[in-house]
Amino acid sequence: MKHKKRKYPLWHFVGKNWWRYIIAGTAMGISILLDIWFPILTMSIVDDVIIGGDMEALKPLLAGILFVGFGRAVSQYIKEFTCDVTGSRVASDMREYLFRHIQSLSRNYFDRNNTGELMARVKDDVDRLWDAFGFVGMLAVEAILYTIGVIVCMVQLNWQLSMIPVLMLPIMGVMAIRLEKKLDKIYDEISEQNAVLNTVVQENLSGVRTVKAFARERFEMEKFRKQNGRYYDLNVEQADIMARFEPKISFIPKVMQLMVLLVGGYMVMKGNITLGLLTAFIQYANNIVWPMENIGWLTNAMAAAFASNKKIKKILGEEPEIKDAEDAQILEDATGDLQFDHVSFSLHGTNILNDISFHLKPGKTLGIMGMTGAGKSTIVNLINRFYDVEQGQILLDGQDIRNLTLDSVRNCTSVVTQDVFLFSDTIRENMKLGRRKMMGDETVRQSLITAHAAEFVDKLEEGYDTVIGERGVGLSGGQKQRLSIARALAKDAKILILDDSTSALDMETEYAIQQSLAEKKGVSKIIIAHRISSVRNADEILVLDHGMIAERGTHETLLEKKGFYYATYEAQYGDYRGIEENGKEKKCPSIQ
Fold it and tell me: Which tens digit of pLDDT belongs to each residue from 387-432?
């Protein structure tokens, strides 16, 4: 799939819901107009009915009040429900887009960024956008429109008295701007610290076995306490800012109400305005208080949304380093022919592979050995195009993999990594891994048999429907490895890569699996291992040393060279050979 750089998608998702916003906006407008009309009805009741004695006008005025109450209830319900639904739809689309974008990023990005931070962006920061484009955002718009409407009505009734709220509004505006600036900075820090806290929790829960094995609960608790304390301090700082601004913001509307009452009362006594007009003015002054008092809360929520928006835009600004070329070809009917042609690769300034060349023909087996850090797993990453080579080329069926689509390259390979990962799902779904419709249960069954996993899966009470944990909770290391091998076999790719995938298995099980794999003649195999027993039957064996091929050949020819491979063989099986020479033991099953 080609990745095209797009404009920031948030406005696209908002635009998709334009008709919902129109419905919500219309309902809001009706509610505002009814609210503004109500004091006019009250003024007429006071001036015309109570003071003027016109009882004929009372019935329509009371009917008008009932109409205002009913109409406002209906319009407010429509507005609030529509806003919440619209905000959730925008957030859901944004979250899905963000998650898809993260999935498209290259391996390098995940090397630089931690899981906890990404979790915070996908969940918490998108939730803040939900607020901004849902009920909170619409409430902010309503507060602005309502304030403008009330001020217009006040000016029309009496421009002198309306100067009191008009003069108060700039003061409120300045305070809101100052509050937003302070909150913007603190919310940026809170968002960052939230990501750090998520990372600490995620790492500890994922590595709980390691923590307990090293009796590091107190150390990890102290680390969590430190980060949690920092998160607490930032939230206290935010609360302090709000506590210092809120009383001032709440006090100003009360002063406005008092001044309207005093000045308006004086004007009534002087005969400049009617009692009904003063009553309407007082109602307007009371009604305008809620937008003024909530300006701090609304500013708080919108500042949080702006801070989260910046974090999300930063991620969406990332481009995958590894992506399809514009003219990338789809590889059809792959044979499993793989060739490294003078490949060199370095990462973060460190040279990892240097001038690696080999040719794995269809149906053949390549063994790769070497010390930790020799570059064995890097070869796997390059084959799958998690990284691109710096020099040389990797050919798949004679074509440079950089000229093929990523899907074509990765569909040709099936990898069993050192780090076994099983999803929190049933064994069946872990085997199918998103290919429920394409893969039958018989394929799953045969893969489990080949990987010698059926023997323990069949004994489980729920069988294939047994739910296992994220890391295979309830399964031994060997059982998880066998399920991982079965999952790779079920994919039925032309190139099978086993990256130290039998390290947790006993020698007898490992040998049995090797025999089963040897029967799969139409599959090219790359076996990366530390055990001689895993690679001894390969058609060619490479021994890596500091990113270079130190030795290559078959098991027999490498033993004759008496080099690195021979030294490894002696270290692993020298004692067995000594026993055999003394006649106490004839053969070791693991090296047959």
Answer: 999 899 999 999 999 999 998 998 898 888 877 888 878 888 888 8
Indicate if 462 and 379 belong to the same structural domain.
no
Sign of torsion over alpha carbons 37, 43, 45, 48? negative
Q: Are residues 547 and 505 in the same domain?
A: yes
What CATH code is carried by the domain that includes residue 100?
A: 1.20.1560.10
Distance CA 525, CA 532 (A): 16
Residues 143 and 64 in one domain: yes
Residue 40 lies in a domain: yes
Structure tokens at 322: 């590894």
Count Cβ atoms within 10 A of the Cβ of residue 556 and give its class: 0-12 exposed, 13-18 middle, 19 or more buried.
exposed
- N-terminal to C-terminal alpha carbon distance within the chain: 45
Q: What pLDDT score does 589 carry?
A: 39
469 CB-near residues (< 8 Å, 6+ apart): 422, 424
Inter-residue contact 452 to 513 (CB < 8 Å): yes
CA distance 490 to 342: 32
Token pair 């319009």: residue: 75
Q: Please state the rounded mean pLDDT for residues 575-579.
A: 54
Residue 30's φ and ψ, nearest 5 degrees, are -60, -45
How many whole angstroms separate alpha carbon 386 and alpha carbon 401? 11
Given 246, 281, 316, which residue is the final one in a domain? 316
- How far is residue 115 from each of residues 164, 225, 312, 381, 534, measured CA to CA in Å? 54, 20, 15, 20, 34
Contact call for residues 167 and 263 (beta carbons, < 8 A) = no
Residues belonging to the chain: 592
364 in the same domain as 275 = no
Whether 332 maps to a domain, the answer reads: no
Higher per-residue confidence, 106 vs 245? 106
Evaluate whether residue 547 is within a structural domain. yes
What tokens does 73 get? 């209830």
Q: Specify if 2 maps to a domain.
A: no
Residue 298 and residue 438 in one domain: no
Residue 376 is part of which domain span? 338-412+493-591
pLDDT score of 227: 87
